[in-house]
Amino acid sequence: MTYGLTGNVTKSALWSPAADLVRWLNAQGLPFRLDPDLAAGLAERGLVEAEVLDGAADAAFARTSDLVLSFGGDGTLLRTAHAVGPACTPILGVNIGRLGFLADIETQEIQQAIAAVEAGHYHVENRAILAAHHDGLPFATPWAVNEFSFERYGRAGLISVRVTVDGAYLNTYWGDGLIVATPTGSTAYSLSVGGPIVYPTAGVVVLSPVAPHTLTVRPVVLPDTVRIEATVKTRGTPFVVAIDGTAHVVEAPAESFVIERASHDLRLVRLDGQHFFNTLREKLMWGQMAKDA
Fold first, then answer.
1. pLDDT value of position 138
2. What stretches of 203-290 adopt beta strand conformation (E)?
């Protein structure tokens, strides 16, 4: 198996474990490819011998590897997923961030994790991705692992988002915005505005309003086979459309977006014994009572 390595090169915590892994892979005779930025950083810091790095940098590492290790937090893993795209290379997240909900292998566990992969003690979990269709959508990869969101811009007034589902009118959301989330994204932005926690392989999409003007408007869970059309209107002011937290300001007072399940999935590597419920309890402290001060 060929391993691809990438990571958040702005984090100082990246370099030591990444260098250790590269040297270990080389010593084990396991082939690897490196994100060019990662390879350059290791070379500049003198952390890995030149002969080990020679020929390892590969701009197409996400497609030429059998498994990609993503060093960083959940944001880094999302960027890695966008880099992998339709190639669907499985991703194993290594946490050097704070939470590590998706990237849930710790740095001291990397060698054991790869040994487990080599022994076949793992499975690949398919996570649904959403795709957006809109003329001039300002993103290189118009799909979302976590969510699409439509939000008011700055101190502008409320926006309205008119939503139809398979052509049937659902609702017009007045408020600060609307989130269209995957099951994976249900524990991200959607959760922070009161959306439900969804099992990550469930075949659903979650619509979660952001600060709705109407008290009775609540999140809705839909099957992921539907075609959602969201028409955003403002009173002559810009609004924000964001994919997995990467935002773009739209100047037009009214724009329509079609959102549906993408033709490819995110493929996450899970070691035997890892489970979503464990991650909920350990990372989000879900179901735990507050300790006495």
1. 61
2. 204-212, 220-223, 228-233, 239-243, 246-250, 254-261, 266-271
Domain that holds residue 137: 130-261
| Residue 8 · residue 73 · CB < 8 Å | yes
292 is catalytic: no
Q: Let me know if residue 62 belongs to a domain.
A: yes
Which residue out of 20, 37, 58, 74 is catalytically annotated? 74
Same domain, 245 and 273: no
* Lookup: tokens for 61: 């590492």
Give the three-state DSSP class for 210: strand
Residue 293 lies in a domain: no
Q: Which residue in 228, 254, 222, 259 sits closest to 243, CA to CA?
A: 259
**d(C-alpha 267, C-alpha 244), whole Å:** 17
Distance of CA 36 to the CA centre of its chain: 21
Domain count for the chain, please give it. 2
Tokens of 24: 């270990």
| Residue 291 within any structural domain of the chain | no
Q: What is the DSSP string of 81-106?
A: HHHHGGG---EEEEE-SS--SSS-EE
Q: What does the pLDDT read at residue 292?
A: 45
Residues 6+ apart with CB under 8 A from 107: 13, 17, 94, 95, 96
pTM of the predicted model as reported, rounded to 2 decimal places? 0.91
Give Cα 261 to chain centroid, integer Å.
Answer: 15
